Amino acid sequence: MGHDQALEAFQLECGALGDAVAGLSDAEWNLPTRCTPWTVRDLLGHVCVVIDWLPAMLDAPSPPEAEISAVEYYRPDDRFSPQTNGKWIALAQDRAARPADGGAFAEDFAAT
């Protein structure tokens, strides 16, 4: 997949996610997701955190080669421990709490 195709796919996926959350009620923002213990709002906060980091990561020099595979990256180790997950959840919740309500958060996501 070329750069332009990847960017187009990313934009389409973000658009679909933005459309999905645009009309959520306050109660729906607080529903649990399959990513326990995150709510819908928390999970979108996590997505926003990662998107916020993308420009700097893309501007950084590429490593000469991949050090691990995608499968190895997601292996259960200290990066996915309860303590680390707690930090990720807190970071996502902090990002999700910035907009005052769900509608404002949906708009913030679209702008991001």
Brief descriptors of the model:
6 helices, 112 residues, globular, mainly alpha
Task: Kindly describe this structure.
The chain is mainly alpha-helical and 112 residues long. It has one domain. 66% of the residues lie in helices and 0% in strands. It is built from six helices and no strands. It starts with a helix and ends with a helix. The model has no long low-confidence stretch (mean pLDDT 89).
Q: Gyration radius, to the nearest Å?
A: 16 Å
Average pLDDT taken over every residue: 89
Overall spatial form: globular
User: Strand count, sense and closure of the main sheet?
Assistant: none
Class by alpha and beta content: mainly alpha
- Continuous helix count: 6
SS strand fraction: under 5%
* Count of beta strands: 0
How is this fold's topology laid out?
Elements: H1 3-22, H2 26-29, H3 40-59, H4 70-73, H5 82-97, H6 102-111
Helix pairs in contact: 1-6, 3-5
How would you summarize this macromolecular structure in one to three sentences?
This protein has one domain.
